[in-house]
């Protein structure tokens, strides 16, 4: 089933055509990847999906509902969350407070109306705390729950950021270069975690330069070059696509 439909999406910045007429869809419960050389327009697509700026042209639909004219906080409430290329945790807040912050956004709307009709704000807070602690245990970070987030290793902070994005059960999580700054072992573990969460029904779109990881986790890959979609398909199809190979020639990234 289609979760996100991007149709004829374009963005120009005063003459620079950052994204041109890009169309693709994301299936529910899948991992999609947006790849392409530097400056291809990947971050610009992310910024349009999350409402950072409106498209110059085209539409973005989430479950057939148009979201392309909405503001970032409205899009978050529709069920799209994201992580950033550079970590954006509250460094002085504790690890658990950072994760709880991911739920607070939604407590008065989606999650609560979905059936958690607990009688008081205190019960609500307890529920958020318990859910956050469950995530910390799953990520083996429960021992660090009460440390300031900024004191954790980079790899652990990345996990906290992902837990904060996933805790509200968003319809779609956008991950902007989740493997950046992680060592090989950490990247492999994070890839396993993404695949596990996918099995649980979570949908992801990631921008990622680590091609080994992309080829391992993605069900569907969309390739941009100079703002234009030059290919899409499965990892096998993309690795054999001559246009894609040509676009990457001369860059340090190999497919
Ligand atoms: N706010 C902006 N104002 C003007 N030009 C911009 C803006 N954001 C992006 N661009 C331009 O749009 C083009 C696409 O940039 P974008 O950051 O989306 O590429 P990218 O694929 O994410 O690159 P990278 O892999 O290096 O992060 C580039 O030419 C960039 O300079």
TrEMBL record:
Coiled coil: none annotated. The keyword Protease does not apply. It comes from the Bacteria. Signal peptide: none annotated. The keyword Nucleotide-binding applies. Gene3D superfamilies: P-loop containing nucleotide triphosphate hydrolases. Residues 4-251 form the ABC transporter domain. One of its GO terms (molecular function) is ATP binding. This is ABC transporter ATP-binding protein. It holds the Pfam family BCA_ABC_TP_C. Keywords: ATP-binding, Nucleotide-binding, Transport.
């Amino acid at each position: 089933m289609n979760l996100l439909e991007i149709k004829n999406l374009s963005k120009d910045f005063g003459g620079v055509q950052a994204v041109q007429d890009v169309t693709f869809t994301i299936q529910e419960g899948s991992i999609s990847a947006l790849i392409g050389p530097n400056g291809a327009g990947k971050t610009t697509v992310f910024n349009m999906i999350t409402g950072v700026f409106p498209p110059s042209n085209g539409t973005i639909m989430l479950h057939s509902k148009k979201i392309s004219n909405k503001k970032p906080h409205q899009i978050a409430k529709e069920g799209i969350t994201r992580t950033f290329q550079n970590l954006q945790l509250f460094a002085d807040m504790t690890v658990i407070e950072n994760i709880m912050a991911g739920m607070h956004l939604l407590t008065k709307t989606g999650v609560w109306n979905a059936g958690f009709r607990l009688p008081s704000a205190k019960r609500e807070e307890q529920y958020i705390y318990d859910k956050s602690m469950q995530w910390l245990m799953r990520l083996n970070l429960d021992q660090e729950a009460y440390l300031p987030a900024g004191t954790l290793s980079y790899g652990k902070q990345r996990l906290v950021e992902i837990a904060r994005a996933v805790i509200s059960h968003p319809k779609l999580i956008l991950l902007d270069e989740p493997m950046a700054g992680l060592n090989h072992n950490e990247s492999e573990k994070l890839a396993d975690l993404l695949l596990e969460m996918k099995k649980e029904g979570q949908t992801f779109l990631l921008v990622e330069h680590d091609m080994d990881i992309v080829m391992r986790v993605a069900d569907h890959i969309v390739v941009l070059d100079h703002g234009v979609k030059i290919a899409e398909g499965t990892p096998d199809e993309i690795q054999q696509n001559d246009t894609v190979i040509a676009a990457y020639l001369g860059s340090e990234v190999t497919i």
